[in-house]
Amino acid sequence: MVKVLETNGLVCPFPLIEAKEAIEEIQSGEELVINFDCTQGTESIPRWAAEAGHQVTNFEQLDVAAWTITVVKK
Question: Structure pTM?
Answer without folding.
Answer: 0.96
